[in-house]
TrEMBL record, chains A, B:
SUPFAM superfamilies: ALDH-like. The keyword Oxidoreductase applies. This is Aldehyde dehydrogenase (NADP(+)). It comes from the Bacteria. Gene3D superfamilies: Aldehyde Dehydrogenase, Chain A, domain 1, Aldehyde Dehydrogenase, Chain A, domain 2. The keyword Oxidoreductase applies. Signal peptide: none annotated. It comes from Nesterenkonia flava. Residues 21-464 form the Aldehyde dehydrogenase domain. Residues 1-10 have a biased composition (Polar residues). Keywords: Oxidoreductase. Residues 1-23 are annotated as: Disordered. It holds the Pfam family Aldedh.
Length: 534, 534
């Protein structure tokens, strides 16, 4: 099992520890507000090219692997991470302040996600093969033989998130889907959890070596501030970018990618307030469980989930008053959890200060501060729908357990809200589907929200993202930079592919995917009709 | 049948002729270098909002049409264009200088393309439905019910090309695929063929009316210069852009779209020199037919095809010398055709001047000028591979029948060429597949070129794009702004879609595509397995 010692650690360029010339960093234990763990050297931008060049060279081999070979590699990577799980979780707990059960769940998710993408790679559905054989007798012109296949874009730069040190970090969804697609990955380590990243990076590098793949299939690079990240996006060998983080960080990367001589796709997941729309019918019965469920969703992981609720719309009237009061009660019994970094904590405190100072906004309730450093109390505020619609700042995300209750007087006001909001990862409706009046409004609201979100839920909470074939974790700007995609689930593999057609190419020059013999036993389309693999 | 008279014509905003306040334009007959046909009023940017607002309102109805209803509308549009075909072709001949057989073929392609997208819309494969039913007993957490469907992005702005006044214009591929996806279209008319555009626009508008669809499903707008186009891309109601034209025009639209508060996808097809690689084995036998085939591909439509060959690599030695000589002979018997506009003709003449003045470049041969105005002689130049690799300007597109023959001494040099070129729509290999030595080089070259092109051909000519299920008309930048897509063929519908997931949404609130009953009889994925429609 890998263990971090007191020695100094480095970027893993094509599997090789590579001392950086850009200074060093140590992790901060946010619970103690103190440095912890070993030193990590930071790469200078002049050193980055070694990683991108290795990725570029590895690409020519890695992209041609058979589905089985790629799946086997991803499975080994998953197993290596699982094997190092105890040390990874212990390190992540110290570096992020996240509690053990949460990190155990996240480790399982990360491992299963790699195994899921191994299955995707093995099946090969993502090759999207389409074949139209030649029709020499067609009039007025013969039809050529045409065979289409999706090919990988090239080396991908991935930037991990602070809030998921495993599932959205070194071996997270972007890495898994890029590797499954056939793209080498250069991962920019998050300096908020350098040790966690090192352990996971070692596990992937070991899997690369064990399968005799070129080392450049995966590199982990530490860098100071944003310089190395920007240089990575500018590097001509990099052909796509995955990012999870702030709106400012994501839009900066978009600008850099668009300004390249050859612009490249950027998949940045950025900002979402995940509105919840509570209908009267949802409040007619038992309200305590609903209020408690809401506070649990709000306060879990200190509110540091991309899908945490930042806005909840509650009807005026006695039932709504009671629900809000019960939210206050549940909140009073809740305590703050340690936030990921002192910087994130201070941004959250400032965000709450700004919110509470806006005219027409008042406090519903607060919990207690947590016992550690950087553990502010969860808090809920309230305003009315008119104030909300007239105050754009009220739609801005506060990353942390702070939520705004917006009281509305008529369900039709929710339409104006839905049509006015920016793009979101999720929206949620709470209602009694048997209630005829609500059903009419809900039907329209669902259709409006469909244009604004990646995922729409009824009678649930947006936190908790099931990794599978049907999930969408995405949405229109600014939820992401590219709403045509998802960062979670099997569809994510399509981010890193593009179509190529082969016309009248002799069998000996055709890639396996489009050969008549179908050696990889792929599901393919023949003259527009699916032909299922057996 | 629609006929243009002497009266003045206008933009068709949601089907209604709308006089513009931005001046007027008339077509130029490039064969005579003289104005022709009626006047068309140009919209001021202040008038554009009527079209985008109508598109936005139409979207809420149009996007929910059943597959059959959308297919029926597209089929009617195809039939109306077919019915007006004689007048459309006569008008296009005068406005573009293109000959009748070419325009007859293009009309058939345009009509068939609309019918093909009607079929795509009817099948509904593009909804990409993925369903994972709830697993309440799953451990450690129950699985929610998740249902994914691809939804249309919203109103699309389309900019047509001058060189395909039908197949890449008002009712061209971008319009057809956007309408099939469920997106209303605001089409910016090309001022080089305003009458052709008017007739086709009338046909589509009639189809919209006949099917009782909101008029905003389709608008045709005339504008002065680039102002209206830029305002269209900036309009917040527009959610994607399709463009075919120059690299300068395409990159300007990309910049405008990226600078919006909400950036949107741009699909611009721009620039390609479509390299052809001739192997020794292809020259061992009969060379005359090959040389004649090449000159026909080069000179067809006056070289004004996106896939026209601009570069051809020919081995040194006697066979290669003879092939080049035969190209000269075939060229000497060829005449120039009328180009689309005086501006395009003058750019082509300047491009040839610049090419011929580069050190190390010499002329292979020229044809005769055409009998009309704006009909320069087709011309072929030559240089050696070292000069080519050291002179980046030699890779720039000259829009028109001008081609550069690059002589190489060793097939391995082609690898350096393939790795160095920019993104292309096509690349072509000519070889004898039975030749073992060539097969080895070709296999590597195919893999290098796969990273640079959208379509790879063997022993054919890149001009001629078959519209079907397997074609790719796209490629990495600068061939297009977004290599993840194609502008021709059924895959193009995916440009205008994005995924949405419904989680635990009651049946009554689910869209038809993901309902258990599968009322639209779609092919869907259930737990990751395709379930074919019957």
């Amino acid at each position: 099992m890998s263990t971090l010692t007191d020695s100094t650690y480095h970027s893993l360029i094509a599997g090789t520890p590579t001392p950086g010339n850009g200074g060093t960093v140590r992790a901060i234990d946010p619970a103690a507000d103190a440095e912890t763990g070993p030193e990590f050297t930071l790469l200078g931008t002049d050193q980055l090219q070694a990683a991108t060049q290795a990725a570029s060279e590895a690409f020519s081999v890695y992209r041609r692997l058979s589905p089985e070979a790629r799946a086997a590699f991803l499975t080994t990577a998953a197993e290596k991470i699982q094997a190092a799980g105890e040390e990874i979780i212990a390190t992540a707990m110290t570096e992020t302040g996240l509690p053990e059960p949460r990190l155990q769940g996240e480790l399982a998710r990360t491992v299963n996600q790699l195994k899921l993408f191994a299955k995707v790679a093995a099946t090969g559905d993502h090759f999207g093969v389409r074949i139209e054989p030649a029709l020499p007798e067609r009039k007025p012109l013969p039809r050529p033989d045409l065979r289409q296949v999706q090919v990988p874009l090239g080396p991908v730069a991935v930037f991990g998130a602070s809030n998921f040190p495993l599932a959205f970090s070194v071996a997270g969804g972007d890495t898994a889907s890029a590797l499954a697609a056939g793209c080498p990955v250069v991962f920019k380590a998050h300096n908020a959890h350098p040790g966690t990243g090192q352990l996971v990076g070692q596990a992937i590098s070991e899997a690369v070596a064990e399968h005799n793949l070129p080392g450049g299939v995966f590199s982990l690079v530490y860098g100071p501030g944003t310089k190395v990240g920007q240089a990575l996006v500018e590097d001509p060998r990099i052909k796509a970018v995955g990012f999870t983080g702030s709106r400012g960080g994501g839009t900066a990367i978009m600008a850099t990618a668009n300004a390249r001589p050859e612009p490249i796709p950027v998949y940045a997941e950025m900002s979402s307030v995940n509105p919840i729309f509570v209908f009267s019918s949802a409040l007619a019965g038992e309200r305590t469980a609903l209020a408690e469920g809401f506070v649990t969703s709000l306060n879990g992981s200190a509110g540091q989930l991309c899908t945490a609720p930042g806005l909840i719309f509650v009807p005026e009237g006695a039932d709504g008053d009671d629900f809000v009061a019960q939210v206050g009660t549940a909140l009073a019994e809740a305590s703050g959890f340690t936030m990921l970094t002192p910087g994130i904590c201070s941004a959250r405190i400032n965000g709450e200060k700004k919110l509470s100072s806006i005219a027409g906004v008042s406090q519903v309730g607060r919990g207690a501060e947590g016992a550690t450093e950087n553990a502010p109390a969860p808090a809920v505020y309230t305003t009315d729908v008119a104030t909300f619609l007239n105050t754009p700042e009220l739609s801005e995300e506060i990353f942390g357990a702070v939520c705004l209750v917006v009281r509305y007087s008529a369900p039709e006001q929710l339409t104006a809200v839905a049509q006015g909001i920016e793009g979101q990862l999720t929206a949620t409706l709470h209602l009694n589907p048997e209630d005829d009046a609500d059903a009419v409004v809900a039907r329209d609201l669902v259709q409006d929200l469909e244009l604004k979100v990646g995922r729409l839920l009824v009678n649930g909470w947006p936190t908790g993202v099931d990794v599978g074939d049907a999930i969408v974790h995405g949405g229109p700007f600014p939820a992401t930079s590219d709403g045509r995609s998802t960062s979670v689930g099997t569809l994510a593999i399509h981010r890193f592919l593009r179509p190529v057609a082969f016309q009248n190419v002799p069998a000996a020059l055709l890639p396996e995917q489009v050969q008549d013999e179908n050696p990889w036993k792929l599901t393919r389309r023949l003259d527009g009709q699916y032909q299922l693999a057996d």
